[in-house]
Amino acid sequence: MHRHEGPSRGRFAAGVGAAVVIATAAAALLIATYNDRPPWGTDIAYEGGFVQASRIRGYDVDGSRTKALLAGECVLMERQGMGGDRAVHDPAAWVEGCLDGAAGRPSRNQGIVR
């Protein structure tokens, strides 16, 4: 029989226990910092507004709905809760994305460097 060279079971258990405590503390810190909002919530909100306005613009045959979006309907939609869960992360970013999508500008989140 060959004896295993390494930490004893007690040291191994203590090391695993310490790792679990550190991981739990790190998770608690992240939750306390961001709560329900993910760290990339601004990007999520922007893209939500951009996609919604782009879809509206794509189905707008006569251009009246696109003009309304640019004239303030994006802000009105966000205030009425039409932005959904994504707008909650950052309402201003959602409106900005909506305006960019309505104007036909490319998304600010496209490309390698932002």
Molecular structure report:
This protein is mainly alpha-helical. The chain has five helices and no strands. Helix 2 packs antiparallel against helix 3 and helix 3 packs antiparallel against helix 5. The longest helix is centred in the first third of the chain and has 26 residues, at 9-34. It is elongated and about 85 Å long. The model has no long low-confidence stretch (mean pLDDT 86).
The H-and-E topology, N to C, reads as HHHHH
Query: What structural class do the secondary elements suggest?
Result: mainly alpha
| Subunit organisation of the chains | single chain
Helix content: over 70%
Low-confidence runs of at least 5 consecutive residues: none
Strand content: under 5%
How many β-strands, per DSSP?
A: 0
Mean pLDDT: 86
Q: How is the main sheet built?
A: none
CA radius of gyration: 24 Å
The end-to-end span amounts to 61 Å
Molecular shape: elongated
Number of discrete helical segments: 5
Keywords:
0% strand; 70% helix; 114 residues; single chain; 5 helices; elongated; mainly alpha
